[in-house]
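Deliverable D4.2, example record:
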Amino acid sequence: MAQAAAHSGWPGWWLRRGLLSGLLWPLSLLFALLTALRRGLYRAGMLRAERIGVPVVVVGNLTVGGAGKTPLIAELARGLQQAGWRPGIVSRGYGRRVADGGAPIRVDAQSDPALCGDEPVLLARLTGCPVMVGRRRARAALALRAASPKVDVMLSDDGLQHLALARDIELVVVDQRLWGNGWLLPAGPLRESPGRRRDATLGPEGALRQVRGGGLHFALVRSPGDFTHLVSGQTLSPAQFVQRFGVEPLGVIAGIGHPGQFFGMLQDLGLSVQGRALRDHQPLHAEAFADLPSGRPVLLTEKDAIKSAYLPPDLRERLWVVGLRLQLPPDLLPWLQQRLEKTRGLPTA
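Output generated by the structure prediction step:
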């Protein structure tokens, strides 16, 4: 169970209902009450949600940790760009060192992930979109609009529970872990009830079959993209990489929400991997590589590669970055654009 929990990115008591989760369950009832009270205050108008003047799409998950939001936001942003939209992206920038009272910070492809967060820097590199991070997403979104007035749609990386930012479309992302043991924090991984209303639920087809309701369902297909040597920039297709390095065990580092999904994807290619799961957003230090096969290539996610700049040169020479291909269903982007077009005539403040 300990290894399964490490590879899931969740503690063991979130994966099944047992003694510890049962002892924590009363606190889950309190968490549910406070969450419902806060949402009720927004519905009653006692707390105000800020409109920013352009349609807002929130891409989030109902559980703690990642479920594949970042690659989905990148694909949505690229698809909207190709259709003539000018998307901007806002994020809290988890894992960053917060300075200046949490004031919004503009992010570009060369920004320091320690100051901005790893995912916002990755999104800036993958999409070329304006990206802004801030503890308060509504404030960050307004700052981004002021800095980039041509932005005509805002994508929020996470933020389903950040109700101060008014939104027009909510997309919930799930992965194979789904809801874990089905309990709210702290007894389980859920931040909100799985029955929460949203416009659509997206994830692997196998997980979607277990989701009841949740608006429209859109199946996502994830597969490894190209393997790129971190230092030289040499690029190999998955087949070429397997042919060249697939005989002996390889090291793998994954500091993402669900490391086991990444390890399994590489094993499905026929690679023998020795995986090291880090906490999501955990800084990357040389000590993390100590138990991996000596002298062999080490595979990283694109998000972890963002944090590799300060590793020793000899270690960086061993690193290969695994891209991710995310295949969207053909009806997703047309549906999203249709919904966005309908919001253009709505009040913006």
